[in-house]
Amino acid sequence: MKKWVYLFEEGYREIPAERRRDLLGGKGAGLAEMAGAGLPVPPGFTITTEACNAYFAAGRQFPEGLWEQVLEALHRVEEKVGRRFGDPQNPLLVSVRSGAKFSMPGMMDTVLNVGLTDETVKGLIAQTGDERFAYDAYRRLIQMFGRIVKGIPGERFEHILDRYKAKTKGKQDTDLTAEMLRDIVEEFKALYRKELEEEFPQDPLEQLRQAIRAVFDSWFGKRAVDYRNFYKIPHDLGTACNVQTMVFGNMGFDSATGVAFTRNPATGEKELYGEYLPNAQGEDVVAGIRTPLKITKKASQEWAREHGISEEERRLRYPSLEERMPETYQQFLEVAALLERHYRDVQDLEFTIERGRLWMLQTRTGKRTAKAAVKIAVDMVHEGLITKEEAVMRVEPEQINQLLLPRFDEKAKERAREKGDLLARGLNASPGAATGHAVFDADTAEAWGRDGRPVILVRPETTPDDVHGMIAARGILTQRGGATSHAAVVARGLGKPAVVGCEALQIDLERKQFSVNGRVIREGDFISIDGSTGEVFAGQIPTIDPNLAEERELAELLAWADEFRRLQVWANADYPRDARKAREFGAEGIGLARTEHMFFEADRLPYVRQMILNAPEAQRLMDQLRAAQQAAQARPDDPKAQKALREAERAVRTSKAVKAYRKALDRLLPVQRKDFEGLFEAMDGLPVIIRLIDPPMHEFLPRYEELLAEVVELRTRIEERRKIKGYRPRKGEKSIRQMEEELAEKEALLRAVNALREMNPMLGLRGIRLGILYPDIIRLQVRAILEAACNVKRRGITPKPEIMIPLSADVKELQIVREIVDEVAREVMAREGVEIEYKFGTMIEVPRAALLAAEIAQVAEFFSFGTNDLTQTVWAISRDDAEGKFLLRYLEEKIVPENPFQVLDRKGVGRLMRMAVEEGRRTRPDLEVGICGEHGGDPSSIEFCHEIGLNYVSASPYRVPVARLAAAQAALKERAARIETR
Amino acid sequence: MKKWVYLFEEGYREIPAERRRDLLGGKGAGLAEMAGAGLPVPPGFTITTEACNAYFAAGRQFPEGLWEQVLEALHRVEEKVGRRFGDPQNPLLVSVRSGAKFSMPGMMDTVLNVGLTDETVKGLIAQTGDERFAYDAYRRLIQMFGRIVKGIPGERFEHILDRYKAKTKGKQDTDLTAEMLRDIVEEFKALYRKELEEEFPQDPLEQLRQAIRAVFDSWFGKRAVDYRNFYKIPHDLGTACNVQTMVFGNMGFDSATGVAFTRNPATGEKELYGEYLPNAQGEDVVAGIRTPLKITKKASQEWAREHGISEEERRLRYPSLEERMPETYQQFLEVAALLERHYRDVQDLEFTIERGRLWMLQTRTGKRTAKAAVKIAVDMVHEGLITKEEAVMRVEPEQINQLLLPRFDEKAKERAREKGDLLARGLNASPGAATGHAVFDADTAEAWGRDGRPVILVRPETTPDDVHGMIAARGILTQRGGATSHAAVVARGLGKPAVVGCEALQIDLERKQFSVNGRVIREGDFISIDGSTGEVFAGQIPTIDPNLAEERELAELLAWADEFRRLQVWANADYPRDARKAREFGAEGIGLARTEHMFFEADRLPYVRQMILNAPEAQRLMDQLRAAQQAAQARPDDPKAQKALREAERAVRTSKAVKAYRKALDRLLPVQRKDFEGLFEAMDGLPVIIRLIDPPMHEFLPRYEELLAEVVELRTRIEERRKIKGYRPRKGEKSIRQMEEELAEKEALLRAVNALREMNPMLGLRGIRLGILYPDIIRLQVRAILEAACNVKRRGITPKPEIMIPLSADVKELQIVREIVDEVAREVMAREGVEIEYKFGTMIEVPRAALLAAEIAQVAEFFSFGTNDLTQTVWAISRDDAEGKFLLRYLEEKIVPENPFQVLDRKGVGRLMRMAVEEGRRTRPDLEVGICGEHGGDPSSIEFCHEIGLNYVSASPYRVPVARLAAAQAALKERAARIETR
């Protein structure tokens, strides 16, 4: 016969530690271990997760032997406690609680006080001498049983309770008298009868059986299923069911109940941290009706100071457990220390004191803030409790990110609170802090954002139509929606702070404003949101960038991580300030400096436009000249060829386009050179990968549609005004002649922009293709890079430039560009008299480049995976279009387990990467391979990069620490797996 | 010592047949073989291609031993002929001719009459007794030597010649007297001296040495290099050099020269076909100054009939060789038959008759028209000359295509000629015939083309900016450019007829017209072009579609091909008429029926638009309803859930969008069903793969930019008119109110279109993604397919529908859609009471689908490679943007050897295909795999599809025969390779 049921101490003795959570669930395993360690645990037993699965497999029937084993275990508990289940004199009461392998707080069901009936309630009165307590316990059982086991809507019980409360003076639960509670019990039983057409079961065993079934059933309740889907917990784990002797913290003032952490879960300080309530049940602590008291004296005193409460008053009205029950407190301290040592981690404890006696109800690993997680891990290493490897494995890389996100200056935030600027609190859906102008629609957000104004997008709720505005905004604030709402999911995806479900806001989209508690915020007014706390403020609160040096423990943890990791961590940085930040965060190189971002700066955009608008014509003439030169050289005595050459020379010499093109390039050279000097200085001695121009040219030009609208408008206006005889412009209006001049200019620009428009710019004329059509642009950039390197080298700095070509798909493209690069480099170095070592490499961001890696590595000295574009092409999904239009739906329908633009798609994109690494290295064993897509900062993706043997990942500066930790964890996991398979 | 030089008969004896062309070149091998067979060949020798390569390797120096071997061989020739080189009494004269492995007509150089000097010319006079002949030969030598060996511009010689000709009565070469020619020789020598500051070499051996060098040098002449680049002939083959005794067809009327084919190269008829000129040299035949005569009497008589020449006159003035020299003719007939038998193929012969004696100068495989190629191959099988396999391998698949292209009705064309409508002749750059309105710019071509009007785009020359117009046009006509011009290359790529370089046209773009010989064609006038002949006609000439049944030999050849091929050939066809054509051409199934083409038809486009514009809102409401239903079902006693369900139901019931959406779907069902019935009927018993809706929805809507312009124009007009006090619309103008109504309507449409616009539609919401968002559209299509199948089955037809899903990238997408498909199919079959077998499969057109083929094959029963999209994504190249903007440049720079959209890129796209086939079949061994991209009709791509084991290729109907032949050739090549490696 299969063993379905384990007494707590049996669980400890009979089940090996590594199987305990699987079989007994988290709560059951904790109880078993506490019982096994001889700690004071109310006796009880656990029904295994296997029993739960067998129950569902049999079509919601108890498997064979289960009930008998329950009865047997119950009997053993009766013996231990010295009470009998259903005994009218001295009844045993039990709780029936779910407990799965992974904590699913509030998602599954619990029934307390099982065993109370019209008969046994009398025994309870006899035992406790407290009629009020006994009837209160009984009405709680009927209420919970009715609601949870039988599905009677909870408000129907509440309604009755409210009626009685209304009769009392204080209108509170605690004001109900014993008589009232007895009447309530009767009314509850009547309600039960009416709802279900059956009596509330008076057989305690029947109560138990049904409660166990309800716990099992709750595993597939909607909330639980949704929760598991969201947190990706498998549905076949099943839940265990814990049946445990009830102990009562509400048996008078020598009783209490409480929760505690063995260390401070907010700061990580090594101090017992917790609260208790005298004469109360566990649910009262959670319900928050009474103010819980602090456990330690120190914490109690601090609390009183904060609330302006005198020491006398505190000792009288708010004494700590340490002061109130010094002996029990000492015992609890010892138990807590023992459990932390046993588990080698911070414990989250639940306890009850019943008439002076301490009972431990639960121990589990304590959840903690990012800050605490780091401090605790580091402290425990220093205490000799855990190893450095364990410390590194203990902290979630994503948590670190929180520590390093911009946050509000605490003092400024405090001042805002004092000024009454705290408007409301919503759900802290995506961490970080942001401040900006409130705007109420996505288009405005986008427009203002384009103008460089910081905005917070405020919406009742967001839909895919708002995504372009969310991208442009610094933060998102919504009135409706929860942690899995569109706004929350998208904001986390975008890495932007978001506060959602802030129901206090009254948003008026028509008038573009919201009001909250009578205060009105209009479009353009400054607001500030804290996505880590859910707070919403009026006005501007300055944000501060965290500093790694000040986060001492984090720096220490990361230093340990660096010892373990094999992957290097580089950073994506376009400007010297970003490079410096990245280096401060531990970056060992720049994996991607995008030169085109520099082109957008106001001081150079006009020249960039001049370059682009003249490039096609100028290049055409120069190509003709080159062809004519070749022809004339091949046929030196052919007069036609000589004549054609002279004509081509003249065409180039007299062309306005060539002149403007060359002038633009000349103007851009010194500014680009200066950009690169700054990067080399910041990264002195470390490699800097500079990517040559990548985006399609029209990105630098005015938008076609806007120009078109302007042209049509002007044209129509001219037409209309011409119809008016003797038309004269009014004040402020332009003359027709002026308008016509303007029109001609705009039409010319429109034509030029139109010539550069593309159906699918992602797949169009960009990257290396631009370089092949317009080699002078590449020459300009390479010259700027090499001249910058020469300049800084003369100043004693060691530049290590690596020149990277985007979007290559064939080795021949790279051969052509490499010749240009090497030629320009030789020229510059000869002229400057300085020798610079540089590398030449390519992005691998087109599937074909990955497929032909062996050939491409003949010319490229390094590869850098551009996984953003590679994901777009491998999936044939344009990120711009998909995220708003259908990717969300794909996530909902689980067609994709994660957004492939955030978490690397190992099966598709990853497979190509693996092939490219292997085949590229076969050609060139010392090939340097890295990744510079956004995935370079994602822990799961970093793990994969480690697996396939990349040299480095390159992440945005703020994610460098995350990447360092993730890389170390990948290495440690691999080591563990190796040891296991040995 | 390496042997560089072979006497002709030595070449036959000493070099194995399969090495002969490599070493001796085509001409040299032919001479060797003719000499070896004992045919009358003027004695001579060949300098090998190896010598040529050694010459270049040594920096244009004769390799060691070469000159000595030349002298030795020359000596042997002297002995044979009985004359001595440089002998003042009886001089030997030789020709020095290039001859590479592959024929490069006119691309390389020849020097004749080498060995003539001031001394030896006298010997020639003595030999021939013809002073005029001798000086003419001498002046030809100086002229050719000066021009070809020394690079003196040819016109300088012509200029002198012209001066003398002007003095004569007839103004012709032949009118020059012996004295004149002697003077010309002196003037030529003087010119030579003046140009080069040296004397014309009087040492015959020096002439020979320099002529050989010139032949070698011409291998890297510009024309030759360009030619090889165009035809993809390697540059390292080198040319051989043939030195051969001169024979003269111009030694009086018992001499002649001519060319002949052993069969008619135009029709393939088995009859000697050729022309000769009495008393003439080879170059005279080519120059076309005198009208050549026919060789056979029959041909001569026919020619006379055509030209209205009486039999008497013919016999007198235009006698055939058969009549003029019956014996020599007989000898020639025998030689020709012997050579054809020897080479087992049609031979193209050059011969000279010197004083009654026949000399064979050249034999080579005869070029022939497509029609002739097919007939000759088939006839030769029937004659027992070659095997069926050889016949199948003899015909280029692309040639077949010509036979099946639309062509002009010959009689109509003849009538047009008679009417004087033949305007001009240009270069036949891309075969096929087209008729349409002349238009002079690409935008008009596109606009008219969109309206369904046939147009011919006429341009001075084309550039990438014209490509959109070329796509829209039926044919292309240019004034300038050659076979490798932009117009020619692009037209061939597009498979459109083109006549280029038609210099007779005078195009006036300003006035949108062209004139030719005084006749003016204006925009909109009909013209007709024949891209196979280069003819340009005024007016409309009806085109006819060829019929395979009438092409008896072709049908026979294809039937043999069918015996050998392993690949099936299916067709891409959207309409029943195309399906019927495909079946007639031998298609064994429909590999791709695009349902969306059907959506564009005028009778349904309004409903399609209605469907699209209402789909987002309707689907949103229906999704809400579905969610509410699930929630209500899960919580039957939750009043909130019930209320939400009722609200969702009401929303769907009252929504205009839902109503319009459903109505549109209802309207589309019967028309789609009818479409499918037609396809099933046409393909009775054969598989029909129907692809569900694929393109982005906005393709069915008006263009955004046009709508935007209309809206802005209206808005501005309203604004302007409002400014006018007391404004009243003039006649024909709308009132402001009317304009406002129109504006509101257009604005609504603009918003809807805008919501569907995408940055990169190629990578956007299309294909299966549409199906997942709007499952009702899929349901509609599947219902139409299954109902159609049921209907035709009841009529005794066997429908074999296969339902194909486009753009899938993950197996989960397919699972979702497959459930819908199967559910609808079950429903329809149950309702109709008919059982239909259908398959479910997917396109593989996204790299990820290929990478995950093993998983995808779990759900898909067939794969069809969509290599158009796969090429776009593997290369990250949008075809729309690239072909105009940079792909041409990539072809020029040889970055891509061929346009990857025409010839499958085996390394990139092909590698993914190979992986997908292997891994897909590992999951599902009977997986049906085919290709439906354009590559399915390209012979090289078909060969690759055969190699990787596809089941079928699917090509456009007109290319089905091409594909049948290509598939057979692939199988035969594989067989040959297997035999070789054994």
UniProtKB/TrEMBL annotation, chains A, B:
The active site is at 486 (tele-phosphohistidine intermediate), 932 (proton donor). Substrate binds at residues 594, 691, 845, 866-869. Residues 22-58, 61-383 form the Pyruvate phosphate dikinase AMP/ATP-binding domain. Keywords: ATP-binding, Coiled coil, Kinase, Magnesium, Metal-binding, Nucleotide-binding, Pyruvate, Transferase. Mg(2+) binds at residues 845, 869. Residues 550-970 form the PEP-utilising enzyme C-terminal domain. Residues 704-759 form a coiled coil. Its cofactor is Mg(2+). It comes from the Bacteria. One of its GO terms (molecular function) is ATP binding. Residues 454-534 form the PEP-utilising enzyme mobile domain. Its EC number is 2.7.9.1. Belongs to the PEP-utilizing enzyme family. This is Pyruvate, phosphate dikinase. It comes from Thermoflexus hugenholtzii JAD2.
